[in-house]
Amino acid sequence: MIKGSCLCGGVKFEIRASKGPFELCHCNRCRKATGSAFAAGLRVRGEDLRIVQGQELIKTFEAPIVDAPPPYTNRFCGRCGSPVPVPSDDASWFEVPAGALDDDPKIRPDKHIYIDFKSPWYSVGDGLPQLTKSQIHAYRRAVV
Questions:
Q1: Which has the closest alpha carbon to 5: 139, 95, 102, 88?
Q2: What is the CB-side half-sphere exposure of residue 36 using CA atoms within 13 A?
Q3: Are 85 and 95 in contact (CB under 8 A)?
Q4: pTM score, two decimals?
Q5: Domains recognised in the chain with CATH numbers
Q6: pLDDT band at residue 137, thresholds of 50, 70 and 90?
Q7: Nearest alpha carbon to residue 85 among 70, 100, 105
């Protein structure tokens, strides 16, 4: 089991397994939601994630739709503001904020996405693939 929690410890979750992808998202919304150069998130199947404690503390913010549905959804602990796992539209998978993990997920980031929105003050230097908005959309259409 991979354990995770928010900053105050009010929300706790467990992940049975994660195969990824483990993406570093540079879109404007992820940067603003994290206050950082990118959001580090890994995908987890819905049946592999369990909220152990603090479900009542979880709040949701849905930003307006920019290009097409769905809207950008941000879930966080209402007490400390830490990001917590966000379900997909059908809840078949979750986006888990990697910074909320307490244990090693045993996988590593595999790509930077929305690199065309990267902060000008951040330089990517890790050698991972860097996908633009159109490239990540094409990639996801091909995988699904």
A1: 102
A2: 10
A3: yes
A4: 0.89
A5: 2-143 (2.170.150.70)
A6: confident
A7: 100
